[in-house]
Amino acid sequence: VRVAARAYLPDLLCAGDAVNAGDALVVDGGVVVAAGAPPAGVERVRLAGAAVVPALASAHGHAFQRAIRGRTEWRAAGRSTFWTWREAMYAAAARLGPEDLGAIARMAFHELARAGVAAVGEFHYLHRDPAGRPYGDPDELAARVVGAAREVGLRIALLRVSYARGGAGEPLAPAQRRFAEDDPGDAVAALERLAGRFAADPLVSFGLAPHSVRACPAGWIRDLAAEARRRRLPLHLHVSEQPRDVEACLAEHGAPPVLLLERLGALGPGTTAVHAIHVGAGEIAALGRAGAGVCACPTTERSLGDGIVPADRLLAAGVPLSLGADSLVQVDLLEDARALELHLRLARLERAVLDPGGGEDALGRRLLAIACRGGRAALGLPGGALAPGEPADFAVLDLDDPGLAGATASDLVSTLVFGGSRAAIRDLYVAGEPVVLDRRAAPGRAPDERIRADFRAAMARLRA
Ligand SMILES: [Zn+2]
User: Fold this and answer.
1) 137 is catalytic
2) Vertex 321: Cα angle to 316 and 327 (nearest 5)
3) How far is residue 183's CA from residue 199's CA, in Å, rounded to a whole number?
4) Which DSSP category does 212 fall into?
5) Does 275 qualify as catalytic in the annotation?
6) pLDDT tens digits, residue range 275-303?
């Protein structure tokens, strides 16, 4: 069914790198066809008191981790660290059934949609049942997660994770047996089955994801990288999130993680290194040479005590950046966008560290582009600027929201990125179709009440 062309007329339109008052966004068949004066003979939709901006993209996340929000914010005996948090996360992961996972993922994706996110990269490593046996349908859990995103209305790139071991020379711990696979070919076979299963849905795509240099031996990373390149799929890995990741890689391979990836042929324009916090100058140069990207997840990284992504040095080396809501401790990608800059201000005792120059809105635009276009590029998806020919994935902002009140064309983006929040996001459109309208699920999508009830029931089961 072809939807008729429509012209959306907000007070302010942010499209193709410009913000203009009085411009229309013209959408036809799920694609932006023009931004400017509305053509004659097209249905007009006036969005009074609103601004339209490109929808956000979260390039890295784990939907099931929504289940532990608010449940790990205390000091364990001794010291609370990333590693003690991981124990709590594993304990939750160990108990989830397929229905629980579906309910938790729907809540996670619903919250992302409400926060203006149109596209998610799901770094999916829950494959087996709690005893470590494959399900009768080996793709049971992956299909639940993809299904949850589609019921909510989001685009999803399922980054199918391979997980082989607990660390160098260590078998999987019992808490990791649900992630287990016997061979890198298992992920490729799963990918082919899933691609067939969702072939009719253009909003579902895939990528390969050797979990990390800790969880995959070198041979697996080499094979999976070659497969991703051959199939033109994104390749995502967790890289240097904690100093211990770097120390273990140096001890096993005699090189830090990024240089190991380069040696394995795993650094290229399709590669996204997630986190890349503890990286040296040689590694940053290698990322830049290869055209590989980095996905920063600042709200999670500060929650876990990981450190600060050196976004200034990465951007200076030409490394494309993206953002991820990752652990979902907070779901507000605008907060991740500003944290990318604000964490550096605290560390460097300076302001506007990432400002490329070019006017009062230039830094805000750079951060918004990372949150929109950057995330989509990391997932192999076009768009993110609402330029003609791009997918019509856009968010409608309420200009009466106290966080945005008074914004004009010249400062809308900076106001949104530095002082706005997801509370200002009123509607979300994906491929030209409404997903959120007036801060509620649009008709035809999984309804708010059912998402909440199913989520509460799943959480009650997990806590029992
Ligand atoms: Zn992660």
Assistant:
1) no
2) 135
3) 25
4) B
5) yes
6) 999 999 999 999 999 999 999 999 999 99
